[in-house]
Design a protein that fits this description.
The complex is a heterodimer of chains A (about 280) and B (about 325). Chain A contains 12 helices and no strands. Chain A is about 70% helix and about 0% strand. Chain A is mainly alpha-helical and about 280 residues long. By secondary structure, chain B is α/β, with parallel strands linked by helices. Chain B folds into 2 domains: about 220 residues, P-loop containing nucleotide triphosphate hydrolases (Rossmann fold, 3-Layer(aba) Sandwich); about 80 residues, Alpha-Beta Plaits (2-Layer Sandwich). In chain B, strands 6-7-8-3-9-10 form a 6-stranded mixed β-sheet, with helices on both faces. The longest helix of chain B has 17 residues. The relative contact order of chain B is 0.13. Classes of the chains: A mainly alpha (about 280), B alpha/beta (about 325). Chains A and B meet through helix 1, helix 4 and helix 5 of A and helix 2, strand 6, helix 3, helix 4 and helix 6 of B.
Chain lengths: ~280, ~325
């Protein structure tokens, strides 16, 4: 009996309505990463600062001699700052291949021949990265705040620093979205995830170095607009109310730079995520 | 455009009305009007004729500069998602989602088409067995041979049970045995499973074996279209002819006498003699031009003749 006679049946079951495909893509991306031991190791390392801070809070709340370790609002900004390095590594590890690998394997024409839009495809890829980045920024940040309350046994700290809830949320959102959009845009430009990773690292380090050089040469800190890292510093100082000295840029200018960078990423994605590449 | 070139009024799964697609300054499709009836339809044409462009336009990958397209009675511009949920596409080039094994990949494609996860997984197993990859379904696709990659592309196109399949050069790169099996599958899908399909190919035997209708494209325009059986009815007789001497010059003689003539890969030419005329005319012309007829045999019209007739006369 030829093997194809083993049967093909028509499908008469349920079909999900359109518009949920982004979640299928995001879920597949998440599961793929969470099955990798290397990535789980990276995630574990990214949670070490949280454990250290949690121990610090426990000691401060329970041992009078350790009162000097008691957290302040600045503790939370420092924590999120520390997590930026893990945001960098996870962005590179997870994000570099998100679209580049699909381009290498011609998967875009498979995706876009299915009932999903280009927006849904990008949203699915973006959601994968956003969720993993939020898992090392917003989630541990909010958990720390919760632990502080639990260890202290009162709401005194939270009442005095209620702004920390929107501050952690807002800064995490900005940090995660900027990193994710920038990486997705770069990932759509190449078929090699290694090259994308190098481009992203170059973007971060080269722009920071350029800012420092231009600052030295011209004496102006306004050149911070070219460095995403320094722009994020300005935003962090603003949302965490930790204004030590004059910021390099006004808050509105920093936010404008972020909006422009995300818009540029969207423009690149709109140009690059297509079912067919037409060369004329 | 005259009335004959307008879309025939027949029930069709795909209709194109004066569709033009431009790449830069050149036209990939020029005012194409065509109708693809249900069943298996071959989309034939030499390389660069516009076959893949037509399929990509129907999928919404390429936006036509003008014209209207309907797939399964839905407007391509207005209902792209509804159309894509009812069609399956097997691309020409190697295409898969990296890092997945076959069953995960096909199930994932099912989920992308709206199937619940459990159903998608069950369908993935079924279609992988159907296309002959049952034993290899847990292997990573990156390790598959070219033939297996062609089969997995067919499986992902079938998993959500589409009403219409677009198959773009499905036998590319396959060995003879694999090619025969793929053609068996395509024939079975179209004739026993109730799916319609459009098979884009430049391989005439593939189309002739699997399809009932054909649309022939050449230089971005429709050269001919219709049922293969009907197109083969030339209204005359076909002869295989071999002569001793300057064959190329004799072809010109035959053409000058109003006979259609195509050279084949061997030294045999195929001559179309209109109704009412016979082999005598061929002998007469050979004698007049001092050519020896070494081989003359009545033949049956093939799709190759239809193709040569359609493309050759343009």
């Amino acid at each position: 009996m030829p093997i194809h006679d083993q049967g093909y049946r028509r499908y008469e079951g349920r079909r999900e309505p359109h518009g949920r495909t982004w979640w299928v893509i995001a879920k597949a991306g998440l599961m793929e990463r969470l099955r990798e031991r290397k990535f789980l190791g990276l995630l574990l390392v990214a949670w070490l600062p949280f454990i250290v801070r949690a121990v610090q809070m426990y000691l401060a709340a329970n041992i009078p001699q350790a009162a000097v370790l008691a957290p302040t609002a600045a503790t939370f900004r420092e924590f999120i700052d520390q997590q930026s390095i893990f945001v960098f590594f996870i962005t590179i590890y997870v994000g570099s291949g998100l679209i580049a690998n699909d381009r290498r394997a011609n998967a875009l024409q498979i995706y876009l021949s299915k009932p999903l839009t280009r927006v849904e495809y990008v949203a699915g890829k973006l959601a994968t990265l956003v969720m993993l980045l939020a898992a090392v920024t917003w989630v541990p940040g909010m958990l720390l705040l919760l632990l502080q309350m639990l260890f202290a046994g009162n709401f005194t700290f939270l009442r005095a620093n209620l702004f920390l809830i929107p501050a952690i949320t807002l800064f995490s959102v900005i940090l995660v979205l900027l990193s994710a959009f920038a990486m997705l845009a770069l990932s759509s430009l190449s078929k090699s995830r290694r090259f994308v990773a190098m481009m992203y690292a170059g973007l971060i380090f080269f722009t920071a170095a350029m800012y420092q050089a231009l600052r030295q040469m011209t004496g102006s800190r306004a050149w911070a607009v070219i460095s995403p890292e320094d722009v994020l510093d300005v935003v962090a100082a603003g949302v965490f109310r930790s204004l030590d000295g004059t910021p390099a840029l006004p808050m509105w200018a920093a936010l404008l730079v972020i909006v422009v960078m995300i818009a540029a990423s969207l423009w690149i994605l709109e140009r690059r995520v297509r079912g067919v590449e037409v060369v004329t | 455009m005259n009335e004959e070139q307008r879309i025939p009024v027949v029930p069709s799964v795909v209709q194109l009305d004066r569709v033009s697609v431009k790449y830069g300054r050149g036209f990939a499709l020029r005012e194409v009007s065509a109708a693809f009836p249900p069943g298996a339809v071959g989309l034939l044409g030499p390389n660069g004729a516009g076959k893949s462009t037509m399929i990509k336009a129907l999928l919404g990958f390429v936006i036509p500069d003008q014209g209207e397209m309907r797939v399964l009675d839905l407007d391509v511009k207005r209902s792209p998602l509804q159309i894509r949920s009812r069609i399956g596409y097997m691309p020409e080039s190697d295409a898969h989602i990296p890092g997945m094994n076959a069953v995960s990949f096909v199930a994932y494609c099912g989920e992308l088409c709206g199937l619940p996860r459990a159903d998608a997984m069950q369908r993935a197993h079924e279609v992988l067995y159907y296309v002959g990859l049952g034993e290899a379904r847990y292997r990573n696709i990156d390790t598959y041979s070219t033939g297996m990659k062609q089969r997995i592309k067919l499986a992902q196109a079938l998993v959500h049970d589409p009403d219409l399949l677009f198959l773009d050069e499905p036998t590319n790169g396959m060995d003879p045995k694999g090619r025969d099996e793929m053609l068996e599958l395509i024939h079975d899908i179209a004739h026993n499973k109730g799916l319609s399909l459009i098979l884009s190919s430049h391989l005439l035997p593939d189309v002739e074996y699997t399809c009932d209708h054909v649309v022939v494209l050449d230089h971005g325009a429709v050269a001919t279209q219709g049922p293969i059986a009907g197109l083969k009815e030339h209204g005359g007789r076909v002869f295989e002819l071999r002569v001793k001497g300057d064959a190329a010059a004799f072809v010109e003689v035959l053409r000058g006498a109003g006979l259609e003539c195509h050279e084949t890969e061997e030294d045999i030419m195929r001559v179309f003699v209109p109704e009412g005329r016979g082999a005598e005319q061929l002998f007469q012309l050979a004698s007049t031009h001092r050519m020896q007829v070494r081989h003359l045999r009545p033949s049956v019209p093939t799709l190759e003749d239809v193709f040569a007739h359609a493309v050759g006369e343009r």
